[in-house]
Amino acid sequence: MLSTPTEAELELAGARLGDALLEHGWKLATAESSTGGLIGHVITLVPGASRYYVGGVISYSNLAKEVEVHVPHELIVEHGAVSAEVAAAMAEGVRERFRTEVGTSVTGIAGPEGATEGKPVGTHWVGVAVRGHPTRTEQRVFIHDREGNKAAAALLALELTRDEVVAAIGVEG
């Protein structure tokens, strides 16, 4: 079993993402479900994060996903809230809502309850929407306790977002 990410690891990932955003003068917004604001917390541990982090939405319920980041109700019904389609819609929706170059989302089942057929506890989807580029989604199934699953999902979101920003900068640079 992989160890739960530490706060220091999370903070380093947040700082690295911030550096990548600053390099291109881009802004980021987040839509968080299962992480409950942890990604925003980690990003704002870095002094000066306001230069690249606009803010975020904790869209914990399906209703919040629909109202706050404009995820179509039909998408949730058809694919479930924990899906690639919803993660992508959340990332695109928060990017549009906050008028940023990058939107990042996470939706998942932190546990210990909430598992469904085909979606065990620990299942998380991350979405990253970079304006002008295809939205990327990635799934992981973590095997920690609730807090560990949230930390692991937040770390994945930070690292995947940095990777997408660096890749987009390389394409545009």
Which terms would index this structure?
single chain; 173 residues; 6 helices; 18% strand; Maf protein; 5-stranded mixed beta sheet; alpha/beta
Give a description of the structure.
- The protein has helices at residues 7-24, 38-43, 62-69, 73-79, 84-98, 146-172, and strands at 28-32, 53-58, 102-108, 123-130, 136-141.
- With 173 residues, the chain is an alpha/beta fold.
- It has one domain (7-168): CinA-like (Maf protein, Alpha-Beta Complex).
- Helix 1 runs parallel beside helix 6 (146-172).
- It is globular.
- It starts with 6 loop residues before the first helix and ends with a helix.
Topology overview:
Blueprint: H1 7-24, E1 28-32, H2 38-43, E2 53-58, H3 62-69, H4 73-79, H5 84-98, E3 102-108, E4 123-130, E5 136-141, H6 146-172
Helix pairs in contact: 1-6
Summarize the structure.
Helices cover 47% and strands 18% of the residues.
Total separate domains = 1
At the fold tier of CATH, the topology name is: Maf protein
Distance, first to last CA: 39 Å
Low-confidence stretches: none
SS-derived structural category: alpha/beta
What's the β-strand tally?
Answer: 5
Using the 3D structure, state the CATH architecture: Alpha-Beta Complex
Across the major sheet, the strand order is: 2-1-3-4-5
Mean pLDDT equals: 95
Give the biggest beta sheet. Answer: 5 strands, mixed
Which percent range describes the beta-strand content?
Answer: 15-25%
What is the rounded Rg?
Answer: 15 Å
Write the CATH homologous superfamily: CinA-like
Query: CATH class, anyone?
Result: Alpha Beta
What is the tally of helical segments?
6
* Helix proportion: 40-55%
> What is the string of SSEs from the N terminus onward?
HEHEHHHEEEH
Rough outline: globular
